[in-house]
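FAQ

Q: What does a record look like?
A: Structure on top, sequence underneath. For example:
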């Protein structure tokens, strides 16, 4: 019985990478066109959402999204969520319909096919370089001015399996305050259970998402970054605890 479980997990992981690559290959010409101009990013975003849905459905994940508030058209936001799985990116793309740009780690550019488009559409950060972190602020500022939102996983990486929610970095909150845009906290309840970074684990099932009421940054200053950080983290932590009861 245990042998069959391990065989399933190996095949399940292989199937995931097939699902990641196949839609990219099929949509490659359109994807290539969509990244030629920054103003065409909304087209790329639509294609990315199709890619995400294909992966989640193909993996047997039944996502359920509960919304306390819905983003308005032609308005920018800072989307944040807890980070536990390789499918967090896909679930974020499915959960949010309005175009946003990921701020993500540079290392993901090494993934074949995916990395090619990731490098050209996301804001990359080398967390070991202060200069790189400064460049993130400048690029994010430009994208926000074009009307696109930003998405950051504020834990700064995937925490150890035994940690429910790591401490949040301040970057997302400083950016939101600087540009006076609302913070949109999302809680991903089941991603660690469904498809964590532990190789021999996971399986099909439900993926619950809670989009919380937005946190206003209107009138806030950089001095209040930590207060906003703690408030957002507290919302997500309490929801994770509620989901796990």
């Amino acid at each position: 019985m245990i042998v069959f479980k391990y065989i399933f997990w190996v095949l399940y992981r292989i199937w995931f990478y097939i699902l990641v690559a196949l839609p990219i290959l099929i949509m490659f010409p359109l994807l290539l066109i969509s990244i030629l101009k920054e103003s065409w990013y909304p087209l790329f975003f639509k294609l990315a959402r199709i890619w995400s849905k294909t992966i989640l459905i193909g993996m047997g994940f039944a996502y359920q999204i509960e919304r306390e508030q819905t983003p308005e058209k032609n308005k920018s936001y800072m989307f944040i969520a807890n980070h536990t799985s390789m499918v967090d990116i896909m679930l974020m793309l499915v959960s949010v319909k309005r175009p946003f740009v990921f701020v993500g780690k540079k290392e993901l550019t090494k993934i074949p096919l995916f990395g090619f488009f990731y490098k050209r559409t996301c804001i990359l950060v080398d967390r070991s370089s202060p200069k790189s972190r400064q460049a993130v602020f400048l690029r994010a500022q430009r994208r926000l001015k074009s009307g696109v939102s930003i998405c950051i996983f504020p834990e700064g990486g995937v925490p150890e399996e035994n940690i429910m929610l790591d401490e949040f970095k301040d970057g997302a909150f400083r950016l939101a305050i600087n540009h006076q845009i609302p913070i949109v906290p999302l809680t991903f309840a089941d991603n660690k259970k469904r498809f964590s970074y532990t190789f021999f684990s996971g399986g099909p099932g439900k993926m619950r998402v809670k989009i919380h009421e937005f946190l206003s940054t209107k009138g806030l200053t950089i001095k209040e970054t930590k207060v906003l950080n703690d408030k957002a983290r507290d919302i997500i932590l309490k929801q994770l605890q509620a989901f796990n009861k």
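Q: Is there anything notable about this one?
A: The longest helix spans residues 2-26.
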